[in-house]
Automatic annotation (TrEMBL):
Bias-annotated ranges (Acidic residues): 826-837
GO MF terms held by the record: mRNA binding; RNA cap binding
UniProt organism field: Aegilops tauschii subsp. strangulata (Goatgrass)
Entry annotated with the keyword Cytoplasm: yes
Name listed for the protein in its UniProt record: Nuclear cap-binding protein subunit 1
Location in or out of the cell: Cytoplasm; Nucleus
Keyword set includes Coiled coil: yes
Similarity field: Belongs to the NCBP1 family.
Amino acid sequence: IHTNQPPTKPNLRAPTETKTLDPSRLLPAPGTSLSSLLSATAAAAAMSAGWRTLLLRIGDRCPEYGGTADHKEHIEICYNVLSREYEHSKDDIFEFLLQCAEQLPHKIPFFGVLIGLINLENEDFAKGIVDATQANLQDALHTENRDRIRILLRFLCGLMCSKVISPNSIIETYETLLSSAATILDEDAGNPSWQPRADFYVYCILASLPWGGSELFEQAPDELERVLVGIQSYISIRRHFDDIAFSVFETDEGNSPNKKDFMEDLWERMQLLSRNGWKVKSVPKPHLSFEAQLVVGKSHRFHPVSCPPPTFTMSSSEILKGQEKHEANLKYPQRLRRLHIFPTNKAENMQPVDRFVVEEYILDVLLFFNGCRKECAFYLVSLPVSFRYEYLMAETIFSQLLLLPNPPFRPIYYTLVIIDLCKALPAAFPSVVVAAVHALFDRISNMDTECRTRLILWFSHHLSNFQFIWPWQEWANVKGLPKWAPQRVFVQEVLEREIRLSYFEKIKQSIEDAAELEGLLPPKAGPNFRYHTDESKESTEGHRISKELVSMVRGRKTTRDIILWVEEQIVPANGTKFAVDVVSQTLLDIGSKSFTHLITVLERYGQIISKLCPDEEMQLLLMDEVSAYWKNSTQMTAIAIDRMMGYRLISNLAIVKWVFSPANVDQFHVSDRPWEILRNTVSKTYNRISDLRKEIQTLRKSIQVAKEASAKAIKELEEAKSILEIVEGQPVSSERPGRLRRLQGFADKAKEEEVTIEESLEAKQALLARGLEEGKELLRLLFKSFVDVLTERLPPVSADGDVPNLRAGDPNVTFPASDPEAATMEIDDENGADNNR
């Protein structure tokens, strides 16, 4: 299951099974102990739940198991129900059990014991599970399904603990993966550019050891040691991965060249686990309660698997090698980049391997329940661990939300999960979130700009779900910071986003305890119409033309009539720029009541704007007018420009040039306004290309279907024509003329459909080629604009190659500044910087 697509989830609301037993048969005899009475109550509750629900809820403190948390009791109850339903639902149980093991991986130890107990009574069922797991793992390796590979290796460890497969089967699978990883790094036999795949294979081995390491150490110590030696050799020859570019914080300790990368860190954790006797508190061991029964079960053979061969390259070009490395990193990205938000004296104290296991639990739940926020929160708060982990859970979720370059899922998903966790753990999690926000706020000046934007969007949305309550007085001091100070900009942008989600008066009321922050509120939203009719103002030519245009729109004049009026009366007398000013301001005012009004105006009268703004120069002027009209609303400015781009009234290149105009460049560090417009432009350009690719793929499939239908119709026609009979000594068609005409019509229609689809495909391919060129031009212009802006403002590198330290206030660094605040940028420390750097 790929992380960028919603996986298929078990049916969490499965229908209740109709076949149940009489709960009275489970009632204890008089004098039974309280524990037995509770067991009977749990069993009675289980009778009213279906076997699917019991499988899903095993290990949870839930009504289906009478509210108890006894894992041994859960397994016994579930096994008894499965045994009773086996004859009627054998295939369903088989499929659902495999599905649960793959999509509820934090419960794999429980599913492993269930399969082990079934193996005692029905070896064929367990053997089928083993064979299906082998086939699924083999398929996952060749389709590069990362999550499935990782989870199936963990599942194999669960089966081994319950004696369903032998330890040697696990060792053989480990050695296959390790051999493939070593081959990939070989310069002659492999391709080191694909090291991310090799790292992933070794990561899967290491990540499964907390679930099976102790059993392997007891039953196959020499073989396990051989695998560990192989991993040590691999770690020593692999290239250290430096991910500074993906660090959330600029001055993070991750910038240290001596810091271990993710693989080296995981290997160190497993070495520590080995020295501690493979004892893991975070992994339940339910098989130990059934060891006397499971030990007599038959261990089935797990057939060997094979890894896909390395991808070879015959080119020595560094560019092509770089492209290969990029492709490999995209296919095998690092799953987690830890974000250490809380100090060590505040977060939970747990062993390194336990921290890793709980992180795996959390990431798995986020992965498989990304479409079920309520169930996601339920499973996150009921992980099978005996210690508290709220701080670690917050750090892991925030690490995913702020993951660079992109989070695994849309940021709104993490927002909803955090909200549900606050409601599920009202006494614990809200305070953790508050502490996380304060910790991130303290280090906001060192945070990556993209991460700042995500944090602003999350925080404003989060507060909107809790009545916008926040201790703003603690941040009131930011009003005295320079306008560009990250902490001040953060508070300012959060307030602006809150107003989008509510209204001005409500947000102003929410900060009444911090009156100083009222100066950071944006102006009250509303249009700034230049030609508004007011008796106190002198009527100008612009007012007259604007009023006449409004009358024409209300009079339902056609777009052509208005264009002729503009071209014949307005442009000759006043010039094109004046016409753009009046027409754009007036049309924006007509569409200012709502988003729907704006769309309607652009759809009906967009041709007028298109006629007046055919080139980039006029489009830049048009965007100036949009910005002036909506100067009090960042949101409406972004929406209007985005919609105009959607209707091809403004080109993406013109938008980039406008964003990098001097007036907007001055806003880069004090407002998100230009960045929001730039993000929308790049996203829309990319989405156009993606949509065209999807449409082309669909059309290609349609062409294949159309060709098959056309060939079939022609074949039927030819067969009908080929059936002859002799009439008066001459061969004539024996088919009725009506049927022949009908078949001919079908063949012609099928051929016409095929031609139509081919023409559509050619048109879409032409649009795609054009879109790709536009995308290239956009990126060229974007990077050139950044280079120009930075070149103007950054000091040159010295002749010795020394780069000035901008953050430390290099005396040789000077900044062009138009106001006193900007002149002190390089020496001002009151901007929320991390003083511990």
